[in-house]
Amino acid sequence: MAVDRRRRQSPRRVEGFVTGRPPDRVPRFAGGVEALTPRELDVVRLSAEGYTAPQIGKLLVIGERTVETHLARAYAKLGVQSKFDLVRRAQYLGV
Fold this sequence. Notes:
The protein has helices spanning 11-19, 38-48, 53-60, 64-78, 83-93. It has 95 residues and is mainly α.
């Protein structure tokens, strides 16, 4: 009996192929401002104003890594992949 050795492709991998983006860059969730926590919203606003992660951390009295975590979650929730896209989306949403 022959064994089928072809690998099944995951839905994310197929979606990445179809959209032309690598699978790890396909947004899992894209929502609006209402999807952000209050702290994520604060970090997005400051980031859109041009502050860096260390500066945001000092202003909000949180660690730089915490700022980066908030930004990463906001990127995923807003469906963006770069700070430039984040700024544009924030302006569009009126953040």
